[in-house]
Specification:
Helix content: 40-55%
CATH superfamily: Metal-dependent hydrolases
Number of strands: 11
Shape: globular
Number of helices: 11
Largest sheet: 6 strands, parallel
Distance between the termini: 13 Å
Structural class: alpha/beta
Order of helices and strands: EEEHEHEEHEHHEHEHEHHEHH
Length: about 230
């Protein structure tokens, strides 16, 4: 099992060390976790360095994603170096915390790098005017060769299901929807299990999967099968 999105480090919102995370993974049976520096920004250099160091320390357990703020001068070059020379496997953009709208032209140079290198882009979405899920879907249509991963929304999930290059993180896991037989409309092949731990609760999200009644084949896809198509996982 792989957790497709969790936070590592310390911010005003949370704190999680690699030791605590690895211990929890071992206890709950997770093979690996995609780790990202926590919000808020606007600067992430030290936080990204920590992610890189811990991924080097635990190369089979932690999958590093580079959190980037496109407002910063020289950020495109830092992104390219992170992806080509420093072992990062993808990009995280956070319009809400860093103060720009999904689709803003300042995103384009960074997305172009993702396209050139064939790496996925996480984009935080939600009810904020900066990043509604339908805006992420529209933006994904402009870069069809880039795979985007964004937050699940029970209200607007169908707009994401219509985009071949847009995947949804499952937190909060849609247990009731799946129990009511909506596996077709949700498209299991587009869902990626995520906990957002420790802001989210890993144990709770795993329990929701258990209660959903999904067959093992569907669980295998959600717990890493789908993610492996997007990120090179050893």
């Amino acid at each position: 099992m792989i957790d497709g999105h969790a936070f590592l480090g310390k911010s005003i919102y949370m704190e999680q060390s690699s030791g605590d995370l690895i211990s929890k993974m071992d206890r709950l049976g997770l093979k690996a976790t995609v780790v990202i520096a926590p919000p808020p920004g606007p600067f992430y250099e030290d936080a990204n360095n920590l992610i890189r160091e811990r991924a080097i320390e635990f190369p089979d357990r932690l999958i590093p994603i580079f959190r980037t703020n496109p407002h910063l001068d020289g950020e495109s070059e830092r992104v390219r170096i992170a992806l080509t020379d420093q072992g990062f496997r993808g990009i995280q953009l956070d319009p809400k915390n860093d103060g720009y709208g999904v689709g803003d032209k300042i995103m384009n140079p960074i997305i172009q790098i993702a396209k050139d290198l064939g790496i996925p882009v996480y984009i935080h979405s939600g009810d904020s005017i900066f990043c509604p899920i339908n805006a992420v879907a529209d933006y994904a249509s402009r870069f069809e060769k880039v795979n985007f991963i964004t937050n699940f929304s029970q209200r607007d999930y169908k707009v994401a299901m219509n985009k071949n290059n847009l995947y949804l993180m499952t937190r909060p896991f849609p247990t009731l929807m799946l129990k009511r037989g909506k596996t077709i409309s949700l498209d299991i092949d587009k869902l990626i299990f995520t906990s957002d731990a420790p802001i989210g609760n890993l144990e709770l999200e795993l329990k929701k999967v258990e209660l959903s009644g999904l067959e093992q084949e569907a669980k295998d896809k959600i717990f890493g099968g789908n993610l492996k198509r997007l990120i090179k996982i050893h």
